[in-house]
C-alpha cells in the first residue's frame, strides 16, 4: 500500500519496485498474448503503463492490489490485441516475412504459404458501408456509379438536386472514413 501511495505522489522508483514485485504476473500475461509488431521491450513498456494506471486507480477498500493489477494488465493487453484481430487485418496476421524465410533458407514455406483472397475483404468492406447507408444515400451511390441519373431519381423517388448532392457528400465521407 505504501508503494502505491508513493506512485500516486509521482515517485518513479516506487513504480519500478512495484513492477519488479509483480514480475511473475507480467511474464505470465506476456506469454499469453502475441502481437507481431511488438518485441519484449514494447510489452515491458505497456506493462509499466498498466501498472501505473492500476496504482493510480486502486482504492484499496475493494480487494487486493495483485488481483486488481492482474485484471488491469490483462485488459490493457487485450486492448492492444483487439484491433489486430478484426477480419480486415487478417492478411497482416497471416503474412510471412520473405526476409526471414530466405534467411532461414526455408524456401519451401514460400510455396506452401496460405493465400489470402482480397475479394473477401473487399466484399466485407462494401457490406459494411452499404449497411450504413440511408435510402437516399444508396440512391446517390447508384448515381455516382452511373447506374441512374439525377432526372431518373427525381422522377422515381422525388428527391431534388440539393438532397441528392448532400447525400452524395455523405456517401463520399462514409467511404473516406471507412478507408482510414
UniProtKB/TrEMBL annotation:
Gene3D superfamilies: 1.10.1740.10. GO terms for molecular function: DNA-binding transcription factor activity. Residues 18-82 form the RNA polymerase sigma-70 region domain. GO terms for biological process: DNA-templated transcription initiation. It comes from the Bacteria. This is Sigma-70 family RNA polymerase sigma factor. InterPro entries: RNA_pol_sigma70_r2, RNA_pol_sigma_r2.
Amino acid at each position: 500500500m505504501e508503494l502505491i501511495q508513493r506512485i500516486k505522489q509521482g515517485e518513479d522508483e516506487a513504480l519500478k519496485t512495484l513492477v519488479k514485485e509483480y514480475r511473475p504476473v507480467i511474464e505470465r500475461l506476456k506469454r499469453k498474448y502475441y502481437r507481431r509488431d511488438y518485441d519484449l521491450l514494447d510489452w515491458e513498456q505497456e506493462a509499466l503503463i498498466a501498472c501505473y494506471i492500476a496504482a493510480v486507480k486502486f482504492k484499496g477498500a475493494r480487494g487486493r492490489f495483485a488481483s486488481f493489477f492482474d485484471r488491469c494488465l490483462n485488459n490493457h493487453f487485450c486492448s492492444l490485441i483487439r484491433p489486430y484481430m478484426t477480419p480486415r487485418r487478417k492478411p497482416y496476421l497471416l503474412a510471412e516475412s520473405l526476409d526471414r524465410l530466405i534467411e532461414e533458407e526455408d524456401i519451401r514455406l514460400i510455396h506452401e504459404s496460405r493465400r489470402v483472397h482480397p475479394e473477401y475483404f473487399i466484399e466485407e468492406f462494401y457490406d459494411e458501408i452499404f449497411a450504413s447507408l440511408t435510402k437516399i444515400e444508396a440512391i446517390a451511390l447508384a448515381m455516382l456509379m452511373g447506374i441512374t441519373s439525377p432526372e431518373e431519381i427525381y422522377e422515381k423517388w422525388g428527391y431534388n438536386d440539393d438532397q441528392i448532392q448532400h447525400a452524395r457528400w455523405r456517401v463520399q465521407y462514409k467511404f473516406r472514413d471507412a478507408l482510414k
